[in-house]
Amino acid sequence: MSGPAGFSTEALHAALIRLPRLADLAPDALEPMPLKGVAHDHVRLRGRRLVARIPRWSQLGLDAWTALDRQAAAFRRAEPSGHTPRFAGLLPPGEGLPLGALVVGEVEGRTPVLPRDMPAIGRALAAIHRMAPPDFYEPLPAPPDPVAALLAQVERQAEWFDRAALDAGARALIAEELAAARAGDLAPPPEAPMPLTAVGVDVHPGNFLIDGYGKAWFTDLEKLQYGHPASDLAHASLYTSTKWDPAVNAELAPADIDAFVEAWAMAVPGDLADEVRPWLKPLRRLTWLRTLSWMARWSVEGATLSPGMPEGLRAHMDAHATDILRAERIEQVRRDWR
Predict the structure, then answer these.
(1) Which CATH superfamily is domain 118-334 in?
(2) Residue 1 has what pLDDT?
(3) CATH says 9-105 is which class?
(4) pTM for the complete prediction?
(5) CA angle at residue 241 from 73 to 70, to 5 degrees?
(6) Alpha-carbon distance 75 to 59, whole Å?
(7) What are the structural domain ranges in the chain?
(8) One Pfam family for this entry, by name (predicted)?
């Protein structure tokens, strides 16, 4: 039997039982979980409180081994935060499991309800941001200038604005934002410190679970790296993110965003909060461009990026991409900083 990404459950089971702690795992203990995102399938290991995390494709364009090594490092590095699943094993790529898999701890929780759970998400991000940096950043990226690196990513992805079916109004507004970013208009005063912390990157609310105690857990660590924490605060609360997951599908009011940021600020050291505040609006704009350019790519080739998705999920994501690339929606989002 084959999964939608080309893996077989037989190959997955054969790889799992090679792990000493899972040598006695029965084949019928593998329970496929509903597909939620675009990049991974998940299979619950019943009775073990573990989940196999199976890549469908690499959003970072990495080969299978490099992608697995980076994800394994991300889960190991983030575990001390107390807000991410624990790392439990790596399954190498092979026949029937072409992109390999990770085994991580299962988080029992529900989908966030917004805006109620945004402060909990803020505290989870704070736990990641306040972790002590490692002695060596590799294999996770750690650009010395995370803002310049973010702009470079936007530039790489900007070609998708030309390839997407955008109307003239949307193109003009996006061109204004790109010009401002290229001219350095999005930067705070030169004397503003630039903190470097662990960042989750893909921290839209659908990538969190809320446990029975109200604690938020960040579950998708594929893109974890070292960067500017203001980009996480932006990505978690932008319209482009809060409407992405159909199970969340909410729009935040300015007061909701303020409460979210304040919950984060109360949970990090005071000097970090002070260093980040001048960057909140500039990086909100730049992070929005990063997300919007990625969604422009999705609007062009989403069907080929992640084949086999349930039709309802794909329809929602396609509709969301169309919505956020409209001139009226772009102008609405820009009110956050204009």
Answers:
(1) Aminoglycoside phosphotransferase (APH), C-terminal lobe (3.90.1200.10)
(2) 36
(3) alpha beta
(4) 0.95
(5) 10
(6) 17
(7) 9-105, 118-334
(8) APH
